[in-house]
Design goal:
It is a single chain. The protein is of the alpha+beta class. It has one domain: PK beta-barrel domain-like (M1 Pyruvate Kinase, Domain 3), CATH 2.40.33.20. Helix content is about 25%, strand content about 30%. The protein contains five helices and eleven strands; from the N terminus they run E-E-E-E-H-E-H-E-E-E-H-H-E-E-E-H. The strands form two sheets. Strands 2-1-6-5-9-8-7-11 form an eight-stranded mixed β-sheet. A three-stranded antiparallel β-sheet has the order 4-3-10, with no helix packed on it. The chain is globular, with a radius of gyration of 16 Å. This is MOSC domain-containing protein.
Length: about 180
């Protein structure tokens, strides 16, 4: 499955409901119209992620396993991705969208949930549900561009640690180990 953008969200200010979009503009520092680019996010200016990504499969699991439906954006992440292991994007540079008009991002770190996400979501268990790999990742904008729902995601420069693991796995597979 080719990794794709499943949904896009921004919030204009701290604690405001997430607004879904068909398309957003990524610029140096984040997403136009988003609270963290505007400097009005809950953690501004202390713990800012320019862009946050979360796995659609993780949101599906949270809904199926815990009965918490976060598909309305209450997860407080900007980009919902389907078909990619977000851990593979940590340390990697990746393009989202058209090679000429899309944006280029670099995965920087995991994005664990905080108690604030649960307060804003208005449902017990949201922060706990987003723990571990379900919380998503942070990314910095390397090159600005337009990103739309349905856009493909392509790694253009892998994280050297991940690339090394893939080479070892392929060698083991070819040797039957």
């Amino acid at each position: 499955m080719t990794p794709r953008v499943d949904a896009l969200y921004t919030a204009p200010e701290d604690s405001a409901p997430m607004v879904d979009h068909d398309e957003v503009s990524l610029v140096p520092g984040g997403i136009e119209g988003d609270r963290y680019l505007n400097g009005t996010g809950y953690y501004s200016p202390y713990d800012v992620c320019e862009v946050t990504l979360v796995d659609a499969g993780a949101l599906d699991s949270i809904r199926d396993d815990l009965g918490i439906d976060l598909t309305d954006g209450r997860h407080r992440r900007n980009v919902v991705v389907r078909g990619a292991d977000l851990q593979d994007l940590l340390g990697a540079t990746f393009r989202v969208g058209d090679p000429d008009a899309g944006a280029v991002l670099r995965g920087t770190r995991p994005r664990p949930p905080c108690a604030h996400v649960e307060q804003v979501a208005g449902e017990d268990g949201v922060a706990r549900a987003l723990r571990g790999r379900r919380g998503g990742i942070c990314a910095d904008v390397v090159a600005p561009g337009t990103v739309a729902v349905g856009d493909e995601i392509e790694v253009v420069e892998g994280d050297p640690r991940s690339e090394g693991r893939r080479i070892v796995d392929r060698l083991r597979e070819s040797l039957g180990r």
